[in-house]
Amino acid sequence: MRTLASGARRALRAKAHPLRPVVAIGTNGLTRTVLHEIDVNLNAHELVKVRVFDDDRGQRERLLAQICADLDAAAVQHLGKILTLWRPSPAPEAVAAAPKTRPAASSRPRRRATR
């Protein structure tokens, strides 16, 4: 589980303010599928919000701690039923891509379609 300094957490809270929750944890709780979706969204966006449909604040705190531990993420904020998580994007893999080339242009002029 990652930890954040207060200044970094403050900056991430400000950055997360306009975001909408991308994953919801329902009555089935924190399943492998839900964890996978949170992981996918963290890889794509670094900063995500998760909505928890549980009225027990203590249970939401436990869910936040479990998500952060399982996904090596940092808790940014727990505000009501919304959990905000951050994890840096993985380093892009060095892909040695061949230079893209266009096919050689034909020397013949194009014919117009007739009606």
Please write the CATH class name: Alpha Beta
Average pLDDT, to the nearest integer? Answer: 88
Shape: elongated
**Low-confidence sequence ranges:** 94-98
Main sheet? Answer: 4 strands, mixed
Calculate Rg over CA atoms.
22 Å
Percent of residues in helical segments?
A: 25-40%
The CATH topology turns out to be Translation Initiation Factor IF3
> Quick one: how many beta strands?
4
Name the CATH superfamily assignment: YhbY-like
End-to-end separation in angstroms reads 68 Å
SSE order: HEHEHEE
Structural class: alpha+beta
Number of helices: 3
Give, in spatial order, the strands making up the sheet with the most strands: 1-2-4-3
Protein model, in words:
35% of the residues lie in helices and 17% in strands. The protein has 115 residues and is an alpha+beta fold. The chain has a single domain, classed as YhbY-like (Translation Initiation Factor IF3, 2-Layer Sandwich), CATH 3.30.110.60. A four-stranded mixed sheet has the order 1-2-4-3, sandwiched between helices. Strand 1 (23-25), helix 2 and strand 2 form a beta-alpha-beta unit. The longest helix is centred in the middle third of the chain and has 15 residues, at 57-71. The protein is elongated, with a radius of gyration of 22 Å.
